C-alpha cells in the first residue's frame, strides 16, 4: 500500500511551491535571461514533484529539491541551446561545479537569492508592460497564483489573464529587457512602478472593485507578503517602508470591516477592539522607519500617516480630523489627484463641518476622472444628509448605487438613499 497518499502529498507540493516559486523562477531567470522560459522550466520541476513525491516520499528539504531539479533542467536547456548554436566549447567543463549543484547543496543554492528576487520584481514590473500586465505577471511569478486565481480575484475572464501573461513575457523577450536591478539613476522611477503594482494588488483586496465581496483577503495577504519581501530587499528605500506601513495599518481593520454575514461595516462604525493591534504596531514601526529615512513626505508614507491617525484613535470620536485634513493637503502637493482631493473633502467635512467639506466636493463635480466614480456622489450624499438636504442627498446616494460595480457597496448606497426618504426625518 502506498504510504504517501496522493492528496496530502499534493497539498504539500502546492504549499512548498507557493513559498518557493518566486525564488526558483528568479534563480532560473538569472541563468537563462528569459523570464518566460524560467517559469516554464520551474513548472517542469513542479510536475516532477507531483509525479515523484507521492511515490518516493517528500524530501527532507523540499525547497532545495525543487530548486535543484529546476536548475538541472535549466542547465540541460543551456547545453541544448549551445549545441544548437554549434559552439565548440567544453560544455561539461564549463558547467561542472558552480552550475551543477548536488542534492545536499541547499546552502549554496541560497547564494545571491535576494539579488535574484529583486531582479525578478523589477522585471515583472517593468514600465514597458501595461499596468494590468504588470499586476498579472507579478501575481503569477512572485505570488505563485494560478491564472484561474488571478482571474477570479479581479473578476476578469481567465483567457484574458492568460493572454496578458503570455504577452507580457513576449514583450519582455522582444524588448530584450535585462534581468537586472536598475542603475541608481533609474531606480526611483522603476521602484515607483514596483510599489504601484503591490499597492494595486492590496487595494483590490481591501475594497473589491466589483462582484459580490466587499474584500478579497487573499489579495491583501499576497500584497503584504510582497511588501515585506520588498522591504527586506530594499531596506534603504523609504517609500517601500511607507507602503508596507500603509498596508499593515489598513489590514489591521479587516476583521472589523464586515459582519458575520459579509455585510460591510464602515470605518466610523467599526468595533475598534477588533482591530489587530499587532499589525498596527508593525505599521507604526514601518512608518517610523520611512520617516527616519527622510521619506515622511512620500505618497505612501503620507497615506500611512493618515491611517495611523485612525489606528491611534481608540474610538471614532477621538480621531484627529484636523491632522488628517492637513496630511491630505500635503498629499495633494506630492500626488495631485481628484481622488485625493475628494478624500480631503471628507476629512475637512469632519474637521470643519459638512458645509466646508461639501464646498470642496462640489468643486470636483466637473472632473472627468470622477465622472463615473461612485465615491463622489457617495461623499456628496453624506455631506448633504448632514446638512439636512435630504432630497439632494437621496439623489446622490442613488447615483452612487448606479455607478458602483460592487454589490455590497450598492446595497449600502441604496440603504442610505432609503434613509433619506424615510418620514422619520
Automatic annotation (TrEMBL):
SUPFAM superfamilies, from UniProt? Sigma2 domain of RNA polymerase sigma factors, Sigma3 and sigma4 domains of RNA polymerase sigma factors
Query: Quick one: signal sequence residues?
Result: none
Could you name the domain of life of the organism this protein comes from? Bacteria
Domain annotation DUF6596: ranges: 190-290
Q: Which residues form the RNA polymerase sigma-70 region domain?
A: 19-81
Q: Name one GO molecular function term.
A: sigma factor activity
Per the record, the GO terms for biological process are: DNA-templated transcription initiation
Which InterPro entries is this protein grouped with? DUF6596, RNA_pol_sigma-70_dom, RNA_pol_sigma70_r2, RNA_pol_sigma70_r4_t2, RNA_pol_sigma_r2, RNA_pol_sigma_r3/r4-like, WH-like_DNA-bd_sf
- Residue ranges annotated for the RNA polymerase sigma factor 70 region 4 type domain, each copy included: 122-172
Q: A Pfam family in this protein?
A: Sigma70_r2
Query: What is the protein's name according to its record?
Result: RNA polymerase subunit sigma-24
Specify the taxonomic lineage.
Bacteria, Pseudomonadati, Pseudomonadota, Gammaproteobacteria, Lysobacterales
Amino acid at each position: 500500500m502506498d504510504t504517501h497518499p496522493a492528496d496530502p502529498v499534493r497539498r504539500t507540493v502546492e504549499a512548498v511551491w507557493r513559498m518557493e516559486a518566486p525564488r526558483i523562477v528568479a534563480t532560473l531567470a538569472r541563468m537563462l535571461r528569459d523570464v518566460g522560459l524560467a517559469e516554464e522550466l520551474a513548472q517542469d520541476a513542479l510536475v516532477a514533484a507531483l509525479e515523484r513525491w507521492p511515490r518516493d516520499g517528500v524530501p527532507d528539504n523540499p525547497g532545495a529539491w525543487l530548486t535543484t531539479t529546476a536548475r538541472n533542467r535549466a542547465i540541460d536547456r543551456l547545453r541544448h541551446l549551445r549545441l544548437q548554436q554549434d559552439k565548440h566549447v567544453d560544455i561539461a567543463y564549463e558547467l561542472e561545479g558552480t552550475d551543477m549543484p548536488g542534492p545536499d547543496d541547499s546552502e549554496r543554492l541560497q547564494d545571491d537569492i535576494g539579488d535574484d528576487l529583486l531582479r525578478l520584481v523589477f522585471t515583472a514590473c517593468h514600465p514597458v508592460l501595461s499596468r494590468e500586465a504588470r499586476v498579472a505577471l507579478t501575481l503569477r511569478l512572485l505570488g505563485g497564483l494560478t491564472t484561474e486565481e488571478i482571474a477570479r480575484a479581479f473578476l476578469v475572464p481567465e483567457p484574458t489573464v492568460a493572454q496578458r501573461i503570455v504577452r507580457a513575457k513576449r514583450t519582455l523577450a522582444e524588448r530584450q529587457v535585462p534581468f537586472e536591478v536598475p542603475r541608481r539613476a533609474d531606480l526611483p522611477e522603476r521602484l515607483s512602478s514596483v510599489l504601484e503594482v503591490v499597492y494595486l494588488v492590496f487595494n483590490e483586496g481591501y475594497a473589491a472593485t466589483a462582484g459580490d465581496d466587499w474584500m478579497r483577503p487573499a489579495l491583501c495577504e499576497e500584497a503584504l507578503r510582497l511588501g515585506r519581501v520588498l522591504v527586506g530587499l530594499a531596506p534603504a528605500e523609504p517609500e517601500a517602508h511607507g507602503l508596507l506601513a500603509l498596508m499593515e495599518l489598513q489590514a489591521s481593520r479587516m476583521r472589523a470591516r464586515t459582519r458575520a454575514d459579509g455585510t460591510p461595516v464602515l470605518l466610523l462604525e467599526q468595533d475598534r477592539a477588533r482591530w489587530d493591534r499587532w499589525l498596527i504596531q508593525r505599521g507604526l514601526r514601518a512608518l517610523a522607519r520611512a520617516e527616519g529615512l527622510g521619506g515622511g513626505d512620500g505618497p505612501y508614507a503620507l497615506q500611512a500617516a493618515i491611517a495611523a491617525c485612525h489606528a491611534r484613535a481608540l474610538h471614532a470620536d477621538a480621531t484627529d480630523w484636523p491632522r488628517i485634513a492637513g496630511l491630505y493637503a500635503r498629499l495633494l502637493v506630492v500626488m495631485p489627484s481628484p481622488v485625493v482631493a475628494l478624500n480631503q473633502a471628507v476629512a475637512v467635512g469632519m474637521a470643519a463641518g459638512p458645509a466646508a467639506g461639501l464646498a470642496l466636493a462640489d468643486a470636483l463635480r466637473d472632473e472627468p476622472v470622477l465622472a463615473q466614480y461612485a465615491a463622489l456622489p457617495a461623499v456628496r450624499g453624506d455631506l448633504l444628509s448632514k446638512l439636512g438636504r435630504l432630497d439632494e442627498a437621496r439623489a446622490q446616494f442613488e447615483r452612487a448605487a448606479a455607478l458602483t460595480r460592487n454589490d455590497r457597496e450598492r446595497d449600502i448606497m441604496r440603504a442610505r438613499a432609503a434613509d433619506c426618504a424615510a418620514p422619520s426625518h
